[in-house]
Specification:
about 425 residues, alpha/beta, Rossmann fold, Nucleotidyltransferase, domain 5, 2 domains, 8-stranded mixed β-sheet, 7-stranded mixed β-sheet, 17 strands, about 40% helix, elongated
């Protein structure tokens, strides 16, 4: 018997349906008005109709009961109305199929109420508003018996939420299907409508809602565009350490403020950032131990200019104290902050960043920003000093340190060539 469902997916939606069938775990980062709820409901319908499991169970989970009822239930009824033998329970927001399959619309408001269920598949919509307890303690166990699929769907809402955490995970995990649907790429929303939305919402909010930007709500972001470019080019991924190259360390020093370390390899023209570490209220011996306990061979340490400061009690510089602990430093060139920021922007296109080990660094690069002055109606030149500053400072040390190292190597080579000609 042939059943016609009143749904014709757009080109962008058809591609997603095809990929969802290939992966157990998926994350869809979609712009507003993409049609993600329609896509989600129809994918669950297809799964319910084609499953060969005994009494398969599927769930569409929204942040609130009201959202599930107002947005998704009408779609569920509409797209299944031509299927013979359908039964609906509006009170439980449920649709039962003649083959024993069932789709239930649920909310994340009370995760404990969902414990004990089993699922062959689920789609979680507006994941940025979902409590992490739901996925970790309820959904994952519910999927385990049937090895069911899970698809996380949403639009960015900054970085302090579950959707961003899984977005980072999906970037470097081959077991996940990650798809980013920007309005500028899908062409689903008319250009006139996008222009009107931009005029009303402003550029930051527009970037978040229609261009899937996780830093769209951070005004004055310094490295936001560079990080977005790295993501588009798949340069934020898993970056294993190449044992044939040493691992160098770039430092930003602090005590009450954090001390930040970035571990990287120079492989040809590329910079592989493989790990990072940050702590505060710890002295140099702590960080020396952290470095010595790493499994890889350490090459060069690059430090900021304040390593040359003398300690009042010993009369020694920080660099001399570090040398006694086995840490040999090259000092990065001292330069204005803006010049250092420019050096980082020139460096980032050459970087591969490990998404698992360097999540704190990636978050810092997204967040690092300048404050907007309402009085002057412009952004202040000096970046805001907050939790994100320390990793960004150590990345400045990296950029200026290897730049200085390359300059010194070229100078030595020119001197050698000159001496050879004289001889």
């Amino acid at each position: 018997m042939q059943v016609t469902i009143p749904y014709t997916p757009r080109k962008a939606q058809a591609y997603i349906h095809e990929q969802l069938d290939k992966f157990r775990y998926s994350l869809l980062c979609c712009h507003r008005r993409f049609g993600k709820t329609v896509l989600c409901i129809n994918h669950l319908i297809k799964a319910a109709m084609t499953s060969k499991n005994h009494q398969p169970r599927y769930a569409y989970i929204a942040p609130t009961y009201s959202q599930a009822k107002k947005i998704a239930y009408d779609y569920l009824v509409h797209f299944t109305k031509n299927i013979p033998g359908m039964k609906y329970n509006q009170t439980e927001l449920r649709a039962d199929f003649i083959n024993g399959a069932r789709i239930t619309l649920l909310s994340s408001e009370n995760p404990d109420s969902l414990r004990g269920i089993y699922l062959d598949g689920c789609i979680i919509d507006e994941t940025a508003q979902i409590n992490s307890e739901l996925i970790n303690e309820v959904i994952t166990p519910a999927l385990s018996d049937r090895k069911g699929f899970m698809c996380l769907v949403g639009t960015p809402k900054g970085m302090a939420n579950l959707f961003y955490d899984y977005y980072q995970k999906a970037q470097g995990d081959p077991n996940w299907f990650l798809h980013i649907a920007k309005a500028s790429d899908t062409k689903i929303v008319d250009q006139d409508e996008l222009a009107a939305a931009l005029a009303v919402m402003g550029p930051q909010k527009y970037e978040q809602e229609f261009e899937c930007s996780f830093i769209g709500n951070i005004q004055g972001s310094i490295y936001g565009e560079a990080i977005a470019s790295l993501e588009d080019k798949k340069q934020i991924t898993r970056v294993p350490v190449d044992p044939s190259y040493p691992v160098n360390v770039a430092w930003d020093l602090g005590y009450n403020d954090a001390t930040s370390l970035i571990f990287f390899q120079q492989i040809g023209h590329m910079i592989h950032i493989v790990d990072c570490y940050e702590n505060n209220n710890e002295a140099l011996p702590h960080y020396a131990t952290v470095i010595k306990e790493k499994d890889y061979v350490i090459g060069q340490n690059y430090g900021p200019h304040d390593l040359e400061q003398h300690d009042f009690t010993t009369g020694k510089t920080r660099r001399e104290v570090a040398y006694q602990m086995g840490l040999r430093f090259k000092i990065a060139a001292r330069m204005p902050i803006e010049d250092g920021i420019h050096a980082v922007k020139m460096l980032l296109p050459r970087c591969l960043i490990d998404v698992d080990n360097c999540s704190k660094l990636i978050n810092a690069l997204r967040h690092y920003h300048r404050k907007f002055s309402d009085k002057e109606r412009t952004y202040k030149i000096k970046p805001v000093h907050d939790w994100s500053s320390h990793f960004c400072d150590s990345l400045r040390t990296l950029a200026t340190g290897i730049q200085e190292n390359k300059f010194n190597q070229n100078k030595r080579q020119q001197t050698a060539e000159t001496n050879y000609k004289v001889l």
